[in-house]
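Lab notebook, bench 4. Still working through the backlog of constructs that have no structural model yet. Next entry is a single chain of 171 residues. Request: give me the structure tokens for it.
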Amino acid sequence: PGRRLGIPRRDPDSNRLMPPTAHIVVDASVARSASDPARHPVTVACLDLARLLESKTCLTGALMTPALLEEWKRHASRHMTSWLVSMEQRGRIRRERDRNVSDLRTAVSMVSDPGIRVALEKDLHLSEAAIMHRVPVASLDDRQRRFLRELGEEYLAAGRIQWLNPVSDSK
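Model written out:
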């Protein structure tokens, strides 16, 4: 993820730190898996993403909605709870309200496979935030990514969501 997000954050004229210009939705699956010390490859990759977003040279912050924050409260590691507070204090978190994307919800309700429909509904808040605010999603859930791509055949915006898995997409 560093190649996509590690952009210098200093104003070339004043040498002052600049606020984030881009944001990413960080799913609770990443927040749960990122802990310090990191030993397992999944933990290392999630922690690397968190550290990258936190670094002074990165222009990308995190986008947080109330639904996502509730999910984080239930699942985030202690390290990521502290990370969120630190990012908030440094102005690196963009707070947005939850917004329903009715076209997306209609498309999901029409999925014939109940297992896929339930999976899409479970993380609908991630997809809605990504569509409404035109931001990518960092998540370990590759099934959700695949289901959204398939749904994209019926609802184009779902297929256009940029989905980043810190483990498999970091190479």
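Notes after review: The chain is about 50% helix and 10% strand. The CA atoms of residues 28 and 71 lie 6 Å apart. Flag for follow-up if needed.
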